[in-house]
Amino acid sequence: MAVTATDVGIGDALIDPALCDTPGMMTHPGLPTAWVWGVAAIAVAMFLWNAAAPVAGRAAGFNAWSAIPRGRLGRGIREWLLDATLPILRTPWLLLTLRLLVATLFIMVIAAGLFGTPIPERNLATVLTWNLWWTGLVFAVFFVGSAWCAICPWEAIAGWITRRHPWGRGRADGSLGLRVPRMLRNVWPATLMFIGLTWLELGMGITTSPYATALLSLFMVVLATASALLFERSAMCRWFCPVGRTVGLYSTLSPVALRPLDAEVCARCETLECYHGDDRIAPCPTHQVMGRMRENTDCTSCGNCTQSCPQANIAWRWREPGREALDAARPRVDTAWLMVVLLALTGFHGLTMMPFWEPTLRDFAHRIGDSGQLLLSFSVALSLALLIPLIVYTGATTLTRRLLGNGAEPGRVFSTLAFACLPLAFSYHLAHNLNHLLRETGDLPVLLANPLGQGALPLSEAEHYLRYLNPGLPQDGLFLFQSSLLVLGLWLAVRIVRRRIGSLLGRTGGVAPVNGAVARWRNVPMLGFVTGVTLYHLWLLAHPMIMRM
Predict the structure, then answer these.
(1) Is the domain of 246 the same as that of 278?
(2) Are residues 238 and 362 in the same domain?
(3) Positions of E strands within 23-101
(4) Could you say which DSSP state residue 255 is in?
(5) How many CB atoms lie within 10 A of CB 349?
(6) pLDDT band at 71 (very low <50, low <70, confident <90, very high)
(7) Can you give the residue range of the structural domain that contains 90?
(8) Burial letters for 503-525: b for 16+ Cβ neighbours within 10 Å, e otherwise?
(9) Which residues contact 362 (CB under 8 A, 6 or more apart)?
(10) Confidence bin at 481 (pLDDT 50/70/90)
(11) pLDDT at residue 2 tops 60
(12) Nearest-CA neighbor of 423 among 311, 325, 302, 541?
């Protein structure tokens, strides 16, 4: 039964009856109309401005990175912040300590899921995994790149089992050391696993099942261990891990990365310890040579290169946010598909949390005779959610190729422009998950004290309302953050479109003819695509969103 504003009072505040539009469901508020129109106006203005701008290779407009102080003080502060974290990567016991802490939490998640209460909001497994870790991970990617992969418990536990040593090279007889078959040396396995995890998460509802969450966690450890036992180095991280590949792609937007301090030192290096390792330190787990690395996609920030480099020439470096996605990262067809899939599935996550989603799905199931757990109906919906963005994106790239008129290969155009999907998926992912993070993880200290949820009861309606009223951030501040994320995501996507089309024209970073005719209409299909996706994400955020737990 829905509760009205007159039923529950908390302090001097009464509950908004709009929160109870859907009986039995508690919802997060959507963006107010004024915010929606404001973001929509900005999006349309950006489309019109960039469609008419005369520059092909470089995005017109203000570069926010240039606002950061470039003087000695500003540079010193930035470099100090980065260098202060470097000892973690250069000192094995510091990195090992972090890995042990994360692995301990991971084991607690498994134990809580297997042996704790089935009430999701009272069990550490579901709250820590789906509300805190997954959302916090995406936020962390922007600030520290792929640093999560350095402390990932899946790879850490698999490494301890196979190498039989907490760090360094360990023993060589713990793995067969086979090369990954050529047919698997791509991210298609990770892409398929990402789709499969989405099906489990949203179709089977494992986000609200502590037991299923624990089983999934165990499965990932088994998969990582099996990969380590069979293949050389960290094949799981390089090719198979859906989380690692997502982090790798998102980290191309990060303003920090492990890079050489002096490119000339790397150019003169003949021993390549960063790749081969040394007597103490294991080789790069993903086969990277630091002096030749142009993108974060395959770097796991494991610290091996920083520890083995005899010249101590590797450190965290600052760069313009999105630099790799703009023009440095090499386009590949398999990663391009994963980028489009990421974009499609982030929007699909939001759609499945709309109050109208379940009634619509049930109506569809009734029409097709799906009388089970609606898995067939959900599978059809998931397929459409993947297919429609792919068709629209393929249409935009096909039209762009025709407008280019220079005979560019379809696969090259498809993979080159796919980088524009990353900031759109990233920004909506953060904006969508802010509500889960701020409203549904407030009881974390209580959960850590009682991870199994022994004796706990489900959240009462009053407790749900308290979470609604106390998100940890002022309501207008939350709306501002969500709106700003969408605008920033579109801004960066527009820059990527213009820069990448410039590279397809053979003018990487260059400019079009003075009259600008070359640039204008060739940008329009992809500008329309990224603007349309942003408006769709805005529409999703404008609706109330059902609380996960």
Answers:
(1) yes
(2) no
(3) 27-28
(4) S
(5) 18
(6) low
(7) 76-318
(8) bbbebeeeebeeeeebbbebbbb
(9) 374, 377
(10) very high
(11) no
(12) 325
Neighbours of 445 (CB within 10 A): 7
In whole angstroms, give the CA distance from residue 422 to residue 336. 10
Residue whose tokens read 């489309």: 47
Same domain, residue pair 141 and 220: yes
Q: Is residue 3 part of a domain?
A: no
* One domain for residues 408 and 331: yes
Q: Phi and psi of 28, rounded to 5°?
A: -80, 145
Q: What is residue 512's predicted lDDT score, i.e. its pLDDT?
A: 42
**CA end-to-end distance (rounded Å), the chain:** 18
Name the residue among 129, 156, 319, 152 with its Cα closest to residue 247: 152
Q: Looking at beta carbons, which pairs linking 222-230 to residues 24 or more positions away fall under 8 Å?
A: 223/154, 224/154, 224/155, 224/157, 224/158, 225/157, 225/158, 225/161, 225/162, 227/158, 228/155, 228/158, 228/159, 228/161, 228/162, 228/174, 228/175, 229/162, 229/174, 229/175, 229/176, 230/175, 230/176, 230/178
- Domain stops at, among 284, 318, 352: 318
pLDDT of residue 189: 93
Tokens of 387: 């297919």
CA 460/CA 457 separation, integer angstroms? 8
pLDDT at 221 over 90: yes
On the question of pLDDT at 540 being above 90, the answer is yes
Q: What is the distance between the alpha carbons of residues 157 and 233, in angstroms, rounded to a whole number? A: 14
